[in-house]
Amino acid sequence: MGSTFPYAVLLLVIRSVFSDDISDDRPCAPLQFDQDSVVCVCNATYCDSIAGSDGIPPPVNPIMYFSSWTSSRDGQRLNYTMGSFGKFQPNKYVYTAGNETFQTILGFGGAFTDAATITMNSLSKNTRNNLLNSYFSSTGIGYTVGRVPMASCDFSKQIYSYDDTDGDLSLDKFSLTEEDIIFKIPAIKDAMSVSPRNLSLFGSPWSAPAWMKTNNNMTGKGTLKGSPGGSYFKAWAQYFVKFIQAYKDHGIDIWGITAQNEPSDGMITNFPFQCMGWTPEMQRDFIASDLGPALEAAGLGHVKLMILDDDRVWLPYWAEVVLKEPASAKYVAGIAVHWYEDLFVPTSALDLTYKQFGDKYFLLNTEACEQDLVNKDRSVLLGNWYRGERYFRDILEDLAHGVSGWVDWNLALDRTGGPNWQNNLADSPVIVDAEKDEFYKQPMFYAMAHFSKFVKPGSRILSYTKNFTEDNDVEAIFYTSSEQFGVSVGANFINTNVNESVSITIKDPSNYGMISFDLPPKSFVTFAWWRA
Protein backbone atom coordinates (compact mmCIF):
# COMPACT_ATOMS: atom_id res chain seq x y z
CA MET A 1 0.00 0.00 0.00
CA GLY A 2 0.91 3.67 0.08
CA SER A 3 2.77 5.50 2.80
CA THR A 4 1.67 5.22 6.40
CA PHE A 5 -0.16 7.91 8.38
CA PRO A 6 -1.50 8.25 11.94
CA TYR A 7 -4.95 7.12 10.86
CA ALA A 8 -6.49 7.45 14.32
CA VAL A 9 -6.37 11.22 13.91
CA LEU A 10 -7.82 11.03 10.42
CA LEU A 11 -10.61 8.71 11.50
CA LEU A 12 -11.64 11.14 14.23
CA VAL A 13 -12.01 13.84 11.58
CA ILE A 14 -14.03 11.57 9.33
CA ARG A 15 -16.32 10.36 12.11
CA SER A 16 -17.21 13.93 12.97
CA VAL A 17 -18.92 14.33 9.59
CA PHE A 18 -19.59 10.74 8.52
CA SER A 19 -23.16 9.69 9.43
CA ASP A 20 -22.42 5.98 9.95
CA ASP A 21 -19.53 5.49 12.38
CA ILE A 22 -16.99 3.16 10.81
CA SER A 23 -16.68 1.39 14.16
CA ASP A 24 -20.27 0.22 13.71
CA ASP A 25 -19.31 -1.84 10.65
CA ARG A 26 -20.41 -5.45 11.23
CA PRO A 27 -18.22 -8.13 9.64
CA CYS A 28 -19.33 -11.20 7.73
CA ALA A 29 -20.29 -14.24 9.78
CA PRO A 30 -18.66 -16.81 7.47
CA LEU A 31 -19.87 -20.31 6.78
CA GLN A 32 -18.23 -22.81 4.42
CA PHE A 33 -20.29 -25.34 2.48
CA ASP A 34 -18.79 -27.53 -0.27
CA GLN A 35 -17.52 -24.68 -2.48
CA ASP A 36 -14.22 -22.77 -2.67
CA SER A 37 -15.34 -19.71 -0.68
CA VAL A 38 -17.74 -18.78 2.10
CA VAL A 39 -21.21 -17.34 2.46
CA CYS A 40 -22.08 -14.72 5.07
CA VAL A 41 -24.84 -15.88 7.41
CA CYS A 42 -27.62 -13.52 8.51
CA ASN A 43 -30.50 -14.17 10.89
CA ALA A 44 -32.95 -12.26 13.08
CA THR A 45 -30.29 -10.79 15.36
CA TYR A 46 -27.16 -10.40 13.22
CA CYS A 47 -26.23 -9.43 9.67
CA ASP A 48 -23.04 -7.94 8.26
CA SER A 49 -23.09 -4.33 7.09
CA ILE A 50 -20.83 -1.96 5.16
CA ALA A 51 -18.75 0.81 6.71
CA GLY A 52 -19.99 4.22 5.64
CA SER A 53 -23.45 5.42 4.77
CA ASP A 54 -22.82 6.17 1.13
CA GLY A 55 -19.50 4.79 -0.03
CA ILE A 56 -16.55 7.20 -0.01
CA PRO A 57 -15.96 9.15 3.21
CA PRO A 58 -15.94 12.96 3.08
CA PRO A 59 -12.64 14.56 2.03
CA VAL A 60 -10.06 15.89 4.44
CA ASN A 61 -7.47 18.56 3.66
CA PRO A 62 -5.19 18.10 1.97
CA ILE A 63 -6.89 15.55 -0.32
CA MET A 64 -4.17 12.93 -0.08
CA TYR A 65 -6.06 9.81 0.99
CA PHE A 66 -8.02 7.04 -0.68
CA SER A 67 -10.44 4.41 0.58
CA SER A 68 -10.56 0.80 -0.53
CA TRP A 69 -12.93 -2.13 -0.04
CA THR A 70 -11.79 -5.70 -0.73
CA SER A 71 -13.68 -8.96 -1.20
CA SER A 72 -11.76 -12.15 -1.90
CA ARG A 73 -12.11 -15.87 -2.26
CA ASP A 74 -10.24 -16.35 1.02
CA GLY A 75 -13.09 -14.71 2.95
CA GLN A 76 -12.71 -10.93 2.86
CA ARG A 77 -16.05 -9.22 2.33
CA LEU A 78 -15.89 -5.49 1.58
CA ASN A 79 -13.04 -5.11 4.08
CA TYR A 80 -12.34 -1.40 4.48
CA THR A 81 -8.92 0.24 4.53
CA MET A 82 -7.60 3.76 4.08
CA GLY A 83 -4.31 4.67 2.44
CA SER A 84 -2.41 7.73 1.34
CA PHE A 85 -1.21 8.76 -2.08
CA GLY A 86 2.52 8.11 -2.38
CA LYS A 87 5.40 8.29 -4.81
CA PHE A 88 5.27 6.55 -8.17
CA GLN A 89 6.21 2.87 -8.04
CA PRO A 90 6.58 1.56 -11.60
CA ASN A 91 5.22 -1.90 -12.32
CA LYS A 92 3.45 -3.83 -15.02
CA TYR A 93 -0.03 -2.59 -14.11
CA VAL A 94 -0.31 1.21 -14.21
CA TYR A 95 -3.65 2.97 -14.67
CA THR A 96 -4.13 6.70 -15.21
CA ALA A 97 -7.57 8.20 -14.60
CA GLY A 98 -8.64 10.49 -17.42
CA ASN A 99 -11.20 13.27 -17.76
CA GLU A 100 -13.39 12.04 -20.63
CA THR A 101 -16.78 10.80 -19.44
CA PHE A 102 -19.22 8.42 -21.10
CA GLN A 103 -22.70 7.10 -20.21
CA THR A 104 -24.56 8.11 -17.05
CA ILE A 105 -25.32 5.35 -14.54
CA LEU A 106 -28.98 4.53 -13.85
CA GLY A 107 -28.34 2.06 -11.06
CA PHE A 108 -28.16 -1.59 -10.03
CA GLY A 109 -30.72 -3.95 -8.54
CA GLY A 110 -32.72 -7.15 -8.72
CA ALA A 111 -36.18 -8.55 -9.41
CA PHE A 112 -39.18 -8.74 -7.08
CA THR A 113 -40.39 -12.03 -8.52
CA ASP A 114 -43.10 -14.17 -6.97
CA ALA A 115 -40.41 -16.66 -5.98
CA ALA A 116 -38.20 -14.03 -4.36
CA THR A 117 -40.95 -12.37 -2.35
CA ILE A 118 -42.61 -15.66 -1.33
CA THR A 119 -39.19 -16.85 -0.14
CA MET A 120 -38.66 -13.63 1.84
CA ASN A 121 -42.01 -14.19 3.56
CA SER A 122 -40.89 -17.63 4.71
CA LEU A 123 -38.56 -15.85 7.17
CA SER A 124 -39.40 -14.28 10.51
CA LYS A 125 -40.11 -10.55 10.47
CA ASN A 126 -36.68 -9.55 11.80
CA THR A 127 -34.76 -11.84 9.47
CA ARG A 128 -36.78 -10.64 6.48
CA ASN A 129 -36.05 -7.06 7.52
CA ASN A 130 -32.34 -7.85 7.60
CA LEU A 131 -32.59 -9.29 4.09
CA LEU A 132 -34.26 -6.17 2.70
CA ASN A 133 -31.86 -3.92 4.60
CA SER A 134 -28.94 -5.84 3.12
CA TYR A 135 -30.04 -4.84 -0.36
CA PHE A 136 -31.69 -1.45 0.09
CA SER A 137 -30.75 0.39 3.31
CA SER A 138 -27.89 2.82 3.88
CA THR A 139 -25.85 0.07 5.57
CA GLY A 140 -26.69 -2.34 2.74
CA ILE A 141 -25.41 -2.40 -0.82
CA GLY A 142 -27.51 0.41 -2.23
CA TYR A 143 -29.83 -1.18 -4.78
CA THR A 144 -31.78 1.50 -6.64
CA VAL A 145 -33.50 -0.50 -9.42
CA GLY A 146 -36.17 -3.20 -9.15
CA ARG A 147 -37.79 -5.34 -11.81
CA VAL A 148 -41.43 -6.41 -11.37
CA PRO A 149 -42.87 -9.24 -13.49
CA MET A 150 -46.31 -8.30 -14.84
CA ALA A 151 -48.28 -11.36 -13.65
CA SER A 152 -46.64 -14.79 -13.66
CA CYS A 153 -43.30 -16.01 -14.97
CA ASP A 154 -41.45 -19.28 -14.47
CA PHE A 155 -40.40 -18.09 -10.99
CA SER A 156 -44.02 -18.26 -9.86
CA LYS A 157 -45.88 -21.12 -8.21
CA GLN A 158 -48.59 -21.16 -10.89
CA ILE A 159 -49.48 -19.77 -14.31
CA TYR A 160 -51.79 -16.75 -14.18
CA SER A 161 -52.51 -13.42 -15.83
CA TYR A 162 -54.29 -10.31 -14.60
CA ASP A 163 -57.33 -11.07 -16.76
CA ASP A 164 -58.13 -14.69 -17.48
CA THR A 165 -61.68 -13.93 -18.70
CA ASP A 166 -61.89 -15.11 -22.31
CA GLY A 167 -62.82 -12.30 -24.72
CA ASP A 168 -62.59 -9.45 -22.20
CA LEU A 169 -61.02 -7.00 -24.64
CA SER A 170 -62.19 -4.07 -22.52
CA LEU A 171 -60.26 -5.59 -19.57
CA ASP A 172 -63.19 -5.07 -17.21
CA LYS A 173 -62.01 -8.10 -15.19
CA PHE A 174 -58.40 -6.91 -14.92
CA SER A 175 -57.12 -7.20 -11.34
CA LEU A 176 -53.91 -7.77 -9.46
CA THR A 177 -53.56 -11.15 -7.75
CA GLU A 178 -52.57 -12.36 -4.29
CA GLU A 179 -49.01 -12.70 -5.59
CA ASP A 180 -48.97 -8.92 -5.97
CA ILE A 181 -51.06 -7.99 -2.93
CA ILE A 182 -49.53 -10.40 -0.40
CA PHE A 183 -45.98 -10.78 -1.63
CA LYS A 184 -44.58 -8.39 -4.26
CA ILE A 185 -46.17 -5.09 -3.23
CA PRO A 186 -45.35 -5.43 0.51
CA ALA A 187 -41.74 -6.33 -0.33
CA ILE A 188 -41.42 -3.35 -2.66
CA LYS A 189 -42.95 -0.96 -0.12
CA ASP A 190 -40.68 -2.27 2.64
CA ALA A 191 -37.67 -1.80 0.36
CA MET A 192 -38.82 1.74 -0.42
CA SER A 193 -39.18 2.50 3.28
CA VAL A 194 -35.55 1.62 4.11
CA SER A 195 -33.91 3.00 0.97
CA PRO A 196 -32.28 6.44 1.22
CA ARG A 197 -32.86 6.91 -2.51
CA ASN A 198 -35.78 6.52 -4.89
CA LEU A 199 -36.22 3.07 -6.40
CA SER A 200 -36.58 2.91 -10.17
CA LEU A 201 -39.11 0.10 -10.64
CA PHE A 202 -39.90 -1.33 -14.04
CA GLY A 203 -42.46 -3.89 -15.15
CA SER A 204 -41.89 -6.70 -17.65
CA PRO A 205 -44.54 -9.02 -19.15
CA TRP A 206 -43.84 -12.68 -19.93
CA SER A 207 -47.12 -13.36 -21.70
CA ALA A 208 -50.51 -11.92 -22.49
CA PRO A 209 -53.52 -13.88 -21.19
CA ALA A 210 -53.87 -17.15 -23.08
CA TRP A 211 -57.09 -16.07 -24.81
CA MET A 212 -55.27 -13.15 -26.45
CA LYS A 213 -52.69 -15.39 -28.12
CA THR A 214 -52.59 -17.37 -31.35
CA ASN A 215 -51.86 -20.64 -29.53
CA ASN A 216 -54.39 -19.98 -26.72
CA ASN A 217 -51.68 -20.75 -24.20
CA MET A 218 -49.33 -18.65 -22.06
CA THR A 219 -46.47 -21.05 -22.85
CA GLY A 220 -45.13 -22.34 -26.16
CA LYS A 221 -44.86 -20.70 -29.56
CA GLY A 222 -47.43 -17.94 -29.98
CA THR A 223 -47.99 -14.26 -30.64
CA LEU A 224 -50.85 -11.83 -30.07
CA LYS A 225 -53.87 -12.42 -32.27
CA GLY A 226 -54.32 -10.08 -35.18
CA SER A 227 -51.82 -7.35 -36.01
CA PRO A 228 -50.69 -3.99 -34.61
CA GLY A 229 -53.58 -1.54 -34.56
CA GLY A 230 -56.07 -4.37 -34.11
CA SER A 231 -58.33 -5.04 -31.14
CA TYR A 232 -56.03 -7.53 -29.39
CA PHE A 233 -53.02 -5.23 -29.69
CA LYS A 234 -55.10 -2.33 -28.36
CA ALA A 235 -56.24 -4.45 -25.42
CA TRP A 236 -52.69 -5.57 -24.71
CA ALA A 237 -51.53 -1.93 -24.65
CA GLN A 238 -54.26 -1.15 -22.10
CA TYR A 239 -53.01 -4.08 -19.99
CA PHE A 240 -49.76 -2.12 -19.46
CA VAL A 241 -51.72 1.00 -18.52
CA LYS A 242 -53.85 -0.87 -16.01
CA PHE A 243 -50.79 -2.51 -14.45
CA ILE A 244 -49.09 0.85 -13.91
CA GLN A 245 -52.28 2.40 -12.55
CA ALA A 246 -52.96 -0.54 -10.23
CA TYR A 247 -49.51 -0.28 -8.66
CA LYS A 248 -49.97 3.48 -8.35
CA ASP A 249 -53.17 2.81 -6.42
CA HIS A 250 -51.01 0.88 -3.94
CA GLY A 251 -48.57 3.78 -3.55
CA ILE A 252 -45.93 2.49 -5.97
CA ASP A 253 -44.78 4.52 -8.95
CA ILE A 254 -43.61 2.47 -11.91
CA TRP A 255 -40.56 4.17 -13.46
CA GLY A 256 -40.37 2.03 -16.60
CA ILE A 257 -41.61 -0.94 -18.59
CA THR A 258 -40.13 -3.32 -21.10
CA ALA A 259 -42.32 -4.09 -24.09
CA GLN A 260 -41.77 -7.86 -23.70
CA ASN A 261 -39.50 -10.20 -21.78
CA GLU A 262 -37.34 -12.21 -24.20
CA PRO A 263 -39.53 -11.85 -27.31
CA SER A 264 -37.48 -14.50 -29.12
CA ASP A 265 -38.68 -17.20 -26.68
CA GLY A 266 -42.23 -17.03 -28.01
CA MET A 267 -40.98 -17.97 -31.47
CA ILE A 268 -39.68 -21.33 -30.20
CA THR A 269 -41.91 -24.38 -30.59
CA ASN A 270 -42.89 -25.90 -27.23
CA PHE A 271 -41.04 -23.25 -25.22
CA PRO A 272 -41.66 -24.56 -21.67
CA PHE A 273 -42.73 -21.48 -19.69
CA GLN A 274 -44.56 -18.19 -20.12
CA CYS A 275 -43.53 -16.30 -23.24
CA MET A 276 -44.85 -14.38 -26.22
CA GLY A 277 -43.25 -14.01 -29.62
CA TRP A 278 -42.33 -10.78 -31.35
CA THR A 279 -40.20 -9.76 -34.27
CA PRO A 280 -38.55 -6.33 -34.13
CA GLU A 281 -40.94 -5.19 -36.86
CA MET A 282 -43.97 -6.28 -34.82
CA GLN A 283 -42.63 -4.53 -31.73
CA ARG A 284 -41.95 -1.38 -33.71
CA ASP A 285 -45.49 -1.25 -35.06
CA PHE A 286 -47.08 -2.15 -31.71
CA ILE A 287 -45.24 0.70 -30.00
CA ALA A 288 -46.12 3.17 -32.75
CA SER A 289 -49.78 2.21 -33.12
CA ASP A 290 -50.82 0.95 -29.70
CA LEU A 291 -48.52 1.02 -26.68
CA GLY A 292 -47.00 4.47 -27.10
CA PRO A 293 -50.33 6.22 -27.76
CA ALA A 294 -52.03 4.32 -24.90
CA LEU A 295 -49.40 5.45 -22.40
CA GLU A 296 -49.59 9.04 -23.64
CA ALA A 297 -53.39 9.09 -23.49
CA ALA A 298 -53.33 7.82 -19.91
CA GLY A 299 -50.88 10.50 -18.80
CA LEU A 300 -48.07 7.95 -18.56
CA GLY A 301 -45.79 9.30 -21.25
CA HIS A 302 -43.09 9.79 -18.59
CA VAL A 303 -42.79 6.03 -17.99
CA LYS A 304 -39.53 4.79 -19.53
CA LEU A 305 -40.35 2.34 -22.32
CA MET A 306 -37.58 -0.15 -23.14
CA ILE A 307 -37.35 -2.35 -26.20
CA LEU A 308 -35.80 -5.81 -26.75
CA ASP A 309 -35.29 -7.14 -23.15
CA ASP A 310 -33.42 -10.09 -24.63
CA ASP A 311 -29.86 -11.23 -25.31
CA ARG A 312 -27.36 -8.93 -27.02
CA VAL A 313 -27.23 -11.24 -30.06
CA TRP A 314 -30.20 -9.22 -31.37
CA LEU A 315 -28.21 -5.99 -31.35
CA PRO A 316 -27.82 -3.66 -33.12
CA TYR A 317 -30.46 -4.98 -35.57
CA TRP A 318 -33.43 -4.87 -33.17
CA ALA A 319 -32.62 -1.31 -32.13
CA GLU A 320 -32.16 -0.24 -35.74
CA VAL A 321 -35.58 -1.54 -36.74
CA VAL A 322 -37.43 0.14 -33.87
CA LEU A 323 -35.44 3.32 -33.37
CA LYS A 324 -34.89 4.36 -36.98
CA GLU A 325 -38.65 4.67 -37.38
CA PRO A 326 -39.72 8.05 -35.91
CA ALA A 327 -43.27 6.87 -35.21
CA SER A 328 -42.02 4.27 -32.69
CA ALA A 329 -38.74 5.88 -31.63
CA LYS A 330 -40.45 8.88 -30.09
CA TYR A 331 -42.01 6.70 -27.40
CA VAL A 332 -38.84 4.77 -26.48
CA ALA A 333 -36.36 5.65 -23.71
CA GLY A 334 -34.02 2.67 -23.59
CA ILE A 335 -32.79 -0.71 -24.80
CA ALA A 336 -32.89 -3.65 -22.37
CA VAL A 337 -30.47 -6.57 -22.67
CA HIS A 338 -29.94 -9.91 -20.90
CA TRP A 339 -26.63 -11.61 -20.17
CA TYR A 340 -27.29 -15.23 -21.14
CA GLU A 341 -25.27 -15.33 -24.36
CA ASP A 342 -22.57 -12.87 -23.31
CA LEU A 343 -19.88 -15.56 -23.32
CA PHE A 344 -20.53 -16.13 -27.03
CA VAL A 345 -21.66 -12.77 -28.43
CA PRO A 346 -18.91 -10.13 -28.67
CA THR A 347 -19.16 -6.74 -27.00
CA SER A 348 -19.14 -5.17 -30.47
CA ALA A 349 -22.93 -5.69 -30.42
CA LEU A 350 -23.11 -3.21 -27.53
CA ASP A 351 -20.55 -0.88 -29.07
CA LEU A 352 -22.40 -0.64 -32.38
CA THR A 353 -25.67 0.01 -30.55
CA TYR A 354 -24.19 2.61 -28.22
CA LYS A 355 -22.45 4.39 -31.11
CA GLN A 356 -25.71 4.73 -33.04
CA PHE A 357 -28.19 5.36 -30.24
CA GLY A 358 -26.35 6.07 -26.98
CA ASP A 359 -26.87 9.82 -27.20
CA LYS A 360 -30.67 9.40 -27.00
CA TYR A 361 -31.41 5.96 -25.53
CA PHE A 362 -29.88 4.23 -22.52
CA LEU A 363 -28.82 0.58 -22.47
CA LEU A 364 -29.72 -1.40 -19.36
CA ASN A 365 -28.95 -5.01 -18.46
CA THR A 366 -32.26 -6.23 -17.06
CA GLU A 367 -31.69 -9.92 -16.22
CA ALA A 368 -28.92 -12.32 -15.24
CA CYS A 369 -28.62 -15.46 -13.15
CA GLU A 370 -26.44 -18.52 -12.68
CA GLN A 371 -27.93 -21.99 -13.03
CA ASP A 372 -27.10 -25.55 -13.97
CA LEU A 373 -29.39 -26.61 -16.79
CA VAL A 374 -28.09 -30.20 -16.77
CA ASN A 375 -27.96 -31.06 -13.07
CA LYS A 376 -30.70 -28.99 -11.46
CA ASP A 377 -29.76 -30.28 -8.02
CA ARG A 378 -26.57 -28.23 -8.40
CA SER A 379 -28.20 -24.98 -9.45
CA VAL A 380 -27.44 -23.49 -6.02
CA LEU A 381 -23.73 -23.53 -5.20
CA LEU A 382 -23.30 -21.94 -1.77
CA GLY A 383 -20.02 -20.05 -1.65
CA ASN A 384 -18.96 -20.53 -5.27
CA TRP A 385 -16.41 -17.81 -6.06
CA TYR A 386 -16.42 -18.31 -9.84
CA ARG A 387 -20.09 -17.34 -10.04
CA GLY A 388 -19.22 -14.13 -8.23
CA GLU A 389 -16.45 -13.53 -10.75
CA ARG A 390 -18.87 -14.08 -13.61
CA TYR A 391 -21.17 -11.40 -12.21
CA PHE A 392 -18.35 -8.93 -11.61
CA ARG A 393 -16.75 -9.37 -15.02
CA ASP A 394 -20.04 -9.14 -16.88
CA ILE A 395 -21.03 -5.95 -15.09
CA LEU A 396 -17.60 -4.45 -15.72
CA GLU A 397 -17.71 -5.47 -19.38
CA ASP A 398 -21.18 -4.01 -19.87
CA LEU A 399 -20.23 -0.69 -18.27
CA ALA A 400 -17.13 -0.53 -20.46
CA HIS A 401 -19.31 -0.82 -23.56
CA GLY A 402 -22.08 1.70 -23.00
CA VAL A 403 -24.48 -0.03 -20.59
CA SER A 404 -25.90 2.22 -17.83
CA GLY A 405 -26.80 -0.32 -15.16
CA TRP A 406 -27.18 -4.00 -14.34
CA VAL A 407 -30.21 -5.72 -12.82
CA ASP A 408 -29.92 -9.20 -11.35
CA TRP A 409 -32.76 -11.73 -11.46
CA ASN A 410 -34.36 -13.10 -8.23
CA LEU A 411 -33.50 -11.12 -5.10
CA ALA A 412 -33.70 -14.34 -3.08
CA LEU A 413 -34.45 -18.04 -3.59
CA ASP A 414 -34.75 -21.11 -1.38
CA ARG A 415 -32.09 -23.80 -0.92
CA THR A 416 -33.22 -25.62 -4.08
CA GLY A 417 -33.10 -22.50 -6.29
CA GLY A 418 -36.87 -22.05 -6.41
CA PRO A 419 -39.80 -21.99 -6.15
CA ASN A 420 -40.32 -22.34 -9.89
CA TRP A 421 -43.40 -24.04 -11.31
CA GLN A 422 -41.40 -25.32 -14.33
CA ASN A 423 -38.47 -26.54 -12.19
CA ASN A 424 -36.24 -24.07 -14.03
CA LEU A 425 -34.12 -23.67 -10.89
CA ALA A 426 -31.39 -21.06 -10.51
CA ASP A 427 -28.88 -19.58 -8.09
CA SER A 428 -29.26 -16.21 -6.41
CA PRO A 429 -27.02 -13.75 -4.54
CA VAL A 430 -29.15 -14.49 -1.47
CA ILE A 431 -30.28 -18.01 -0.57
CA VAL A 432 -32.83 -18.56 2.21
CA ASP A 433 -32.99 -21.46 4.66
CA ALA A 434 -36.47 -21.00 6.11
CA GLU A 435 -36.16 -23.92 8.56
CA LYS A 436 -33.19 -22.23 10.24
CA ASP A 437 -34.66 -18.74 9.80
CA GLU A 438 -31.46 -17.51 8.17
CA PHE A 439 -30.14 -16.50 4.79
CA TYR A 440 -26.79 -16.70 3.04
CA LYS A 441 -25.07 -13.92 1.12
CA GLN A 442 -23.17 -15.46 -1.75
CA PRO A 443 -20.01 -14.18 -3.49
CA MET A 444 -22.43 -12.95 -6.19
CA PHE A 445 -23.99 -10.62 -3.60
CA TYR A 446 -20.63 -8.98 -2.95
CA ALA A 447 -19.82 -8.80 -6.66
CA MET A 448 -23.02 -6.78 -7.03
CA ALA A 449 -22.12 -4.72 -3.95
CA HIS A 450 -18.87 -3.41 -5.41
CA PHE A 451 -20.96 -1.72 -8.09
CA SER A 452 -24.32 -0.97 -6.48
CA LYS A 453 -22.79 0.60 -3.35
CA PHE A 454 -20.20 2.75 -5.06
CA VAL A 455 -21.20 3.38 -8.70
CA LYS A 456 -24.20 5.47 -7.74
CA PRO A 457 -27.00 6.74 -10.00
CA GLY A 458 -25.79 9.84 -11.81
CA SER A 459 -22.16 8.67 -11.90
CA ARG A 460 -20.41 8.77 -15.25
CA ILE A 461 -18.11 6.12 -16.66
CA LEU A 462 -14.64 7.64 -16.84
CA SER A 463 -11.83 7.17 -19.29
CA TYR A 464 -8.48 5.77 -18.20
CA THR A 465 -5.25 4.54 -19.75
CA LYS A 466 -3.27 1.44 -18.86
CA ASN A 467 0.19 0.23 -19.72
CA PHE A 468 0.48 -3.49 -19.33
CA THR A 469 0.70 -6.46 -21.65
CA GLU A 470 -2.60 -7.99 -22.68
CA ASP A 471 -3.82 -10.68 -20.31
CA ASN A 472 -6.98 -11.47 -18.39
CA ASP A 473 -5.70 -11.51 -14.80
CA VAL A 474 -6.71 -7.93 -14.03
CA GLU A 475 -9.61 -5.85 -15.36
CA ALA A 476 -10.85 -2.44 -14.27
CA ILE A 477 -13.48 0.26 -14.74
CA PHE A 478 -13.26 3.90 -13.62
CA TYR A 479 -16.14 6.27 -12.82
CA THR A 480 -16.73 9.73 -11.42
CA SER A 481 -19.52 11.75 -9.86
CA SER A 482 -20.23 15.17 -8.43
CA GLU A 483 -20.97 15.02 -4.72
CA GLN A 484 -21.84 17.53 -2.03
CA PHE A 485 -18.16 17.63 -1.06
CA GLY A 486 -16.77 17.89 -4.61
CA VAL A 487 -15.82 15.49 -7.40
CA SER A 488 -15.13 11.88 -6.50
CA VAL A 489 -13.38 9.23 -8.57
CA GLY A 490 -13.77 5.49 -8.16
CA ALA A 491 -12.34 2.35 -9.70
CA ASN A 492 -13.38 -1.29 -9.54
CA PHE A 493 -10.73 -3.96 -10.10
CA ILE A 494 -10.92 -7.73 -10.41
CA ASN A 495 -7.93 -10.03 -10.08
CA THR A 496 -8.70 -13.53 -11.36
CA ASN A 497 -5.19 -14.85 -10.73
CA VAL A 498 -5.52 -18.01 -8.67
CA ASN A 499 -2.41 -17.82 -6.50
CA GLU A 500 -0.65 -14.49 -6.90
CA SER A 501 -1.30 -10.98 -5.69
CA VAL A 502 -0.95 -8.35 -8.41
CA SER A 503 0.69 -4.99 -7.69
CA ILE A 504 -1.05 -2.07 -9.37
CA THR A 505 -0.43 1.65 -9.54
CA ILE A 506 -3.25 4.17 -10.03
CA LYS A 507 -2.46 7.72 -11.05
CA ASP A 508 -4.89 10.64 -11.00
CA PRO A 509 -3.19 13.75 -12.47
CA SER A 510 -5.50 15.91 -10.33
CA ASN A 511 -4.07 14.53 -7.07
CA TYR A 512 -0.77 14.56 -5.22
CA GLY A 513 0.67 11.18 -6.00
CA MET A 514 -0.07 7.56 -6.79
CA ILE A 515 -2.08 4.74 -5.26
CA SER A 516 0.05 1.63 -4.90
CA PHE A 517 -1.89 -1.49 -3.94
CA ASP A 518 -1.55 -5.26 -4.01
CA LEU A 519 -4.72 -6.91 -5.32
CA PRO A 520 -5.11 -10.23 -3.49
CA PRO A 521 -5.55 -13.38 -5.60
CA LYS A 522 -9.15 -14.02 -6.61
CA SER A 523 -10.42 -10.65 -5.43
CA PHE A 524 -12.64 -7.65 -6.15
CA VAL A 525 -11.35 -4.26 -5.00
CA THR A 526 -13.07 -0.87 -5.08
CA PHE A 527 -11.08 2.36 -4.72
CA ALA A 528 -12.49 5.83 -4.06
CA TRP A 529 -10.88 9.23 -3.66
CA TRP A 530 -11.56 12.94 -4.09
CA ARG A 531 -10.07 15.06 -6.82
CA ALA A 532 -8.15 18.11 -5.68
Automatic annotation (TrEMBL):
Coiled-coil region list: none
Gene Ontology MF, one: hexosyltransferase activity
Boundaries of every Glycosyl hydrolase family 30 TIM-barrel domain copy: 105-455
InterPro entries cross-referenced by the UniProt entry: GH (IPR017853), Glyco_hydro_30 (IPR001139), Glyco_hydro_30_TIM-barrel (IPR033453)
Pfam families in the cross-refs: Glyco_hydro_30
Biological-process GO terms, alphabetical: alcohol metabolic process; autophagy; glucosylceramide catabolic process; lysosome organization; negative regulation of macromolecule metabolic process; protein catabolic process; regulation of macroautophagy; regulation of membrane potential
Pathway: Sphingolipid metabolism; Lipid metabolism
Top EC class for this record: hydrolase
Reaction(s) the record says it catalyses: a beta-D-glucosyl-(1<->1')-N-acylsphing-4-enine + H2O = an N-acylsphing-4-enine + D-glucose
Secretion signal span: 1-19
The keyword Signal is annotated on this UniProt entry: yes
EC number(s) recorded for this UniProt protein: 3.2.1.45
Protein origin, superkingdom: Eukaryota
Keywords: Glycosidase, Hydrolase, Lipid metabolism, Signal, Sphingolipid metabolism
GO cellular component: lysosome; vacuolar membrane
Keyword Cell membrane: no
Family note: Belongs to the glycosyl hydrolase 30 family.
PANTHER family per UniProt: GLUCOSYLCERAMIDASE (PTHR11069), LYSOSOMAL ACID GLUCOSYLCERAMIDASE (PTHR11069:SF23)
Designated name of the protein: Glucosylceramidase
Organism: Dreissena polymorpha (Zebra mussel)
